[in-house]
Amino acid sequence: MSTAMQRPPAVQPISRYFEKPPQSVLIVNKMRTPPVILAINALLEHIHTAYPGVRVFHEDRPDIPHGAEVWHPSKHQIDLVVTLGGDGTILHASSLFSSGAVPPVLSFSMGTLGFLLPFHIDDFARALESVFHGKATILNRMRLAATFFNQNLAKKKNDNNGQSQFASAPLFLQYSLQPRVNTDWQVMNEIALHRGSSPHLNTIDIYVDGQHLTEAVSDGLIVSTPTGSTAYSLSAGGPIVHPSLSALVLTPICPRSLSFRPLVFPSSSSITLRIGDRSRAPAGVSMDGRTSHVLQPGESVTVQASPYPVPCINRSSISDDELHQKEKEGAGPGKEDDWVRDINNLLQYNATFRSKALLRHSRT
């Protein structure tokens, strides 16, 4: 009983320095278009030349680049993950380490924009130099852990024990006693329950730390991390949360009640979403854009903070002290100023709306 009540270790979402140079690198990339092929070839050549002895791995795919070894998760430990692509590439890299700790992630954009892309591919030599020389800092971006249960609160996956030992307890006590360890799924952005192709709204009971919060009638619900607060949750009207915070964001999708507003919970909270017995529609479950489950009435998912965040390398930590002081404004190296830049540049935060047609005829 005491094991079930344990909380996951607290995640410290603060920047810290690399402790030692990486000895193994995993390359994760989007589809191998000609620009991606050229970038990977240049990256591999630079690593083999500048850092001899470092092993470079790649997923076991038909298009594995020349000079990289096939990565077998059970055999090869990874010290650094290098992604080339968009934000979806980083989410995919996170999914490759869904059962444990994630190595530091160095992300390069390939002409795309995103909140998780601090570096352009043209800067890969300088970024790698900072990593291998211990100058880079990382920000631990929180992940969510999810466990799925059937109507009797038995786990829907990897559970050979049959009925849950808590099934005979009162409903509010059952959800407060659900295990907080040994989860099945870990995601970086969000877990979304939605009505899918059904014309009917979902009816979902929400429990927070075993206490019934409300019965939600809506198109669905989103539980997101601070990183995911600028993704699906934001489009559904959720708040923007700084990624250095540890919090869970609950956002309704088109709720029937106009007073049902988004909520932010501490990362120590456990949120259970149970499909109501009276729900006229099952709920599809999407996690970081991937469909995983369909929950029928009476089934549920429990979401909590994962003890394994995604350590993302900051662009602000790559700048040289002297260069930063002379030519740039804002926080110095090691300070997390990427987020402020992103909400201004990518979201055009608080920018005044002006019609392009009006601008063409403006006299000012």
From TrEMBL:
Enzyme Commission numbers on file: 2.7.1.86
Pfam families, alphabetized: NAD_kinase (PF01513), NAD_kinase_C (PF20143)
GO molecular function list: NADH kinase activity
Gene3D superfamilies tied to this protein: Probable inorganic polyphosphate/atp-NAD kinase, domain 1, Probable inorganic polyphosphate/atp-NAD kinase, domain 2
Assigned keywords, A-Z: Kinase, NAD, NADP, Transferase
Region (Disordered): 316-337
InterPro entries reported for this sequence: ATP-NAD_kinase_N, ATP-NAD_kinase_PpnK-typ_C, NAD/diacylglycerol_kinase_sf, NADK
Biased composition (Basic and acidic residues): 321-337
Database matches in SUPFAM superfamilies: NAD kinase/diacylglycerol kinase-like
Similarity-based family: Belongs to the NAD kinase family.
Name recorded for this polypeptide: NADH kinase pos5
Species of the source: Marasmiellus scandens
